[in-house]
Amino acid sequence: GKVPAGSILASAPSDKNLDAWRESGCRTTHCNLEVLQESTLVFLATKPHILPGVLQEIRPAVGPHHIVVSLAAGVTLQTLQRLLPAGTKVLRLMPNLPCVVQAGAMVFARGSGAGDGEAALLKNLLSSCGLCEEVPESYINIHTGLSGSGVAYVYLFAEALAEGAVKMGMPGGLASRIAAQTLLGAAKMMLETGEHPAKLRGDVCTPGGTTIHALHQLEKGALRATIMNAVEVATNRACNVAED
């Protein structure tokens, strides 16, 4: 809601990828150079292997007034700056899927040509989509393993929670809604209280109660170690994506 739809110009090779933009009231084109000619803030949202070709195409049109933001996984600021004119204001952004419901988690890093003004502009613009933090570039691949891929880990956990309730006799639809609200509430408490999750987890446990018995089973299944391993392998994969 911070930018009028009519001020946004989206470019893609096919109409298929532009339909959603048109339905939102945005302008569309098949010409990447047209975006550069009419825009100051330019987002590059391509697959990593496509990006070098796009950068080669737009390079002649990139000027000192442009702010270029890349969403391509694995493509470093160093690579972006090498493929664009010297001094270009470049930032690298990594969002996650819940941005589409304004509950995303995003991190970004700035290149050598981007200053405090560009960083503040991007953070302010994206704050409407959820949490947005500036980080060292080395954190971006970790964010991919933690949050970009982590959304899928949470869906798997939510599915298991609901199926456990179904096993015990609750209807599936109700179980799924309660599982989702449980995750939402737990996340909101972490954000609003600022407490460490271990502290909040301890607050739920009563001596000899249901929660500590259930946590014992999760520990037997090495839940924490398995999730840590998942973040590790996803992070390592993110580091290698651009090389494929």
TrEMBL record:
Pathway: Amino-acid biosynthesis; L-proline biosynthesis; L-proline from L-glutamate 5-semialdehyde: step 1/1
Catalytic activity, EC: 1.5.1.2
GO cellular component: cytoplasm
Function comment: Oxidoreductase that catalyzes the last step in proline biosynthesis, which corresponds to the reduction of pyrroline-5-carboxylate (P5C) to L-proline using NAD(P)H. Proline is synthesized from either glutamate or ornithine; both are converted to P5C, and then to proline via pyrroline-5-carboxylate reductases (PYCRs). PYCR3 is exclusively linked to the biosynthesis of proline from ornithine.
Domain of life: Eukaryota
Binding site for NADPH: N32
PROSITE patterns listed in its UniProt record: P5CR (PS00521)
Catalytic activity annotation: L-proline + NAD(+) = (S)-1-pyrroline-5-carboxylate + NADH + 2 H(+); L-proline + NADP(+) = (S)-1-pyrroline-5-carboxylate + NADPH + 2 H(+)
InterPro entries given in the database record: 6-PGluconate_DH-like_C_sf (IPR008927), NAD(P)-bd_dom_sf (IPR036291), P5C_Rdtase_cat_N (IPR028939), P5CR-like_CS (IPR053790), P5CR_dimer (IPR029036), Pyrroline-COOH_reductase (IPR000304)
Keyword Plastid: no
Source organism per UniProt: Pluvianellus socialis (Magellanic plover)
Keywords annotated in UniProt: Amino-acid biosynthesis, Cytoplasm, NADP, Oxidoreductase, Proline biosynthesis
Pfam families for the chain: F420_oxidored, P5CR_dimer
Residues in Pyrroline-5-carboxylate reductase dimerisation domain copies: 137-238
Record-level Gene Ontology MF annotations: pyrroline-5-carboxylate reductase activity
Residues in the signal sequence: none
Any one biological process term the GO annotation gives: L-proline biosynthetic process
Family: Belongs to the pyrroline-5-carboxylate reductase family.
Protein name, entry field: Pyrroline-5-carboxylate reductase
Main localization of the protein described in the UniProt heading: cytoplasm
NCBIfam families assigned: proC
